[in-house]
Design brief:
CATH architecture of chain A: 3-Layer(aba) Sandwich
Oligomer: heterodimer
Helix content of chain B: 40-55%
Strand order of the largest sheet of chain B: 2-1-5-4-3
Shape of chain B: rod-shaped
Structural class of chain A: alpha/beta
CATH superfamily of chain A: Response regulator
Largest sheet of chain A: 6 strands, mixed
Distance between the termini of chain A: 25 Å
Order of helices and strands of chain A: EEHEHEHEHEHH
Mean pLDDT of chain A: 81
Largest sheet of chain B: 5 strands, antiparallel
Structural class of chain B: alpha+beta
CATH class of chain A: Alpha Beta
Helix content of chain A: 25-40%
Distance between the termini of chain B: 80 Å
Number of helices of chain B: 15
Radius of gyration of chain B: 70 Å
Mean pLDDT of chain B: 79
Strand content of chain A: 15-25%
CATH topology of the largest domain in chain B: Heat Shock Protein 90
CATH architecture of the largest domain in chain B: 2-Layer Sandwich
CATH superfamily of the largest domain in chain B: Histidine kinase-like ATPase, C-terminal domain
Chain lengths: ~160, ~650
Amino acid sequence: MSGVLESQGRKDFALNILLVDDNEADVKIALRAFGQARLKNRVFVAYNGQECVDFVRHQGAFSDEASHPRPDLILLDISMPVMDGFGVLKELKGDETLRSIPIVIMTGSNNENDICRSYAGGANSFIRKPVTYEEFVKVVEGFNQYWHMINTLPGCKDRME
Amino acid sequence: MFRHLKIGYKLVVIFLLISVIPLLAISSFVFFYTKAELEKKTIASLQAVNKSRAAHINHSIQLRQEQAKGMAGSYVMRQLKEAGLNDPSVIIGIQMYIDSTFADLQSNPTSDYLNIDKKTDIEIIGVWDVYGTIVANTNKKLIGMKMPEALQYMQNVSKRGTYFAGFQKDDLTKQNFLISFEEIRNWDSDRIVGAVALKTRARILDDITTAREGLGRSGETYVVNNQYQMITQPRFSKEKISGKRVMTPGTSACFTKKKAPNIYKNYRGVDVLGVQTYLPDQQWCLIAEIEAAEAFASVREFRNSTFVFGGILVLIIIACSTLASRIFTRPILRLHTASQDLAKGKYDIAVPLDSKDEIGGLGKAFNEMAQSLASFNKELEEKNKALFKNWAQTTRQKKELREVNQELDSFVYTASHDLRAPLRGIASFASFLEEDYKDKLDQQGREYLDEIRKAATKMNAFIEDLLTLSRISRIKNPFEDVPIKELLDTVLERLKFDIKNNNVDLVMPKDLPVIRCDRIKMAEVFQNLINNAIKFSSKNNKQRPRVEVGYLSVDNDHKFSVKDNGIGIEAKYHEQIFGIFKRLHTDKEYEGTGAGLSIIKKVIDDHQGRIWVESELGKGATFYFTIPKDLHRPSSDEDESSSSGQEKTDTESKESP
């Protein structure tokens, strides 16, 4: 159940982003918004928390490392079946080799509890999904701007693995 | 100290004081008075004894003197001539005379006036001439000897005629002697030619002084000469101590003719009562003494028996007063215990009433009080129970209400969130349709899609307001002292753009208070009210929009007002407008969801204040609200879900690893 969409731009500069969301409509909206942002991204999708963990660890359906590279960034929804966003945070942030991957929570909720729990669980950022597509695009643009241009990513995957 | 004693002990102490003090006073008086009397009497009796013995001594010595005088005056004796002129026959005659007299006294002691136990105490009879040479003596060995002391005697004899020699101590026999001298005058010439001397044992003195009559067990009399030497054998010495020097207050007083103290330490170092009689002829002092211990034995006995009696009395008094205090204090103690019980809330007590005196009366009154207290308490308890029941019911209802409210809030919250996801789908896919199928849709289709998007946006606004409202009631920030001037400055900074654009005439009060409130929510209240005022007054085309913020301190409340010169509100809507999503105008006239005022009302309610509006259609509107001055957050209004909202968000950025 993984889909790969190669965004426009050169492959060698692309960021590998893993989008974790159970809502197919939201996945489609997000992918479209990423496409529209015209930045060098490769967006992988996992439809629940367990898939996300399997993807990062190259387990099960995601054992092929070449087609499922270690993500540079994870966009994580909170409420999902099988394993929710907090479960993913616990798994990945509790794993020394995976802890360095930045995790951005992107969810419909702006519940204060969820925000607190996310950051307490090790999330690096918290984004609330806007309702309209126009705003969604703005958010993704801002997101790209930050993670591509402003921020420097760890870049320590070879050493770690 | 006394004040802290128990009542029983106090009674005992009082009884003791009452009985022991007079007892002590009386017995002391009796003791000292009796002692003084005894002393007086003893001294008197000692004086009597002394007087009789002094007389006896004088008499004895006189008798002996008479005897010597008789011998000296005899014809045989008076034949003696001056030394060297004597006829041997005269001397022989004298010798025979004294021998026969001596022999007579020895063989027939009763002929001696002073025989004691039928024994004469005459030792030697001798005759001296004027040069001190012994011419005749019952002890033949001594005849012809010249005795130096005899000269002294002779001189005394010639000086005084009749003389008593006094005391001599014999080293061999350890006996005391008396020597009586009498001059011998020649029958013819009547000149002093010699002396006759009778040497007698001093038994007479010893006998007198050791006689016990009138002296009791420890009394004694003794004689001291002017050399302070004891010349009689005292009663209480086994050794011969005659000649021993005795320097006591008694002897010195006697010879210096002063008054001696009645009581002093005698030659044995014992406290004695003593009297002294001076014998001027002999220059002796006769001393009678009795031990103070014996003299005062009776008072001492009295004192001892007083102590014993007093001790017994004290014991009896302690026993009696303890008993008495029990009788008095037991009911009082019972009352005390009962009142303590009463204080602890035991109302079913009754003090036993076994006496009809004042304490009994007190007990009765106490019992009545306890009864009325009990009934009063019962009444109180019943009322309390009823009150508690009422309170419990109210509390339960309040709790239920709060739970329902919470459920509602949480439902609103969840529903609002869940509504957002499909709404995003609707809005987004409408956008996709519009973008991807732009060319395939006609004008009508595009307009419909636009309406879908607009509707979704509108619905999103409603949902956002619902979430805000729900958050307002869920999240309770701590109250703090907020200067309203600063708060308004912040709010106006946020509204700067609208104020400038609409050319609003903004009027602010000069004096603004510092009030206790939730800073963030209060800012929201002011921002919403001022924003509304700007919104409504700026559509009034006739006048320049005017917004006036007011403040008044009214009794226990801070009263704020926000006044505009907008379109105003009809009186029938004055209550409604604070309900959620109540709108009086279309979107085209005035934007907004209508949640603003209900959010404000919720905040004001939360501050235990009131909000209302005064307005007439077309004449602007004034919104008033009050905040109590002594505001405190009631604990019952705090619920569990709200506390989580107060947690500080972890704002540390984790976006950059």
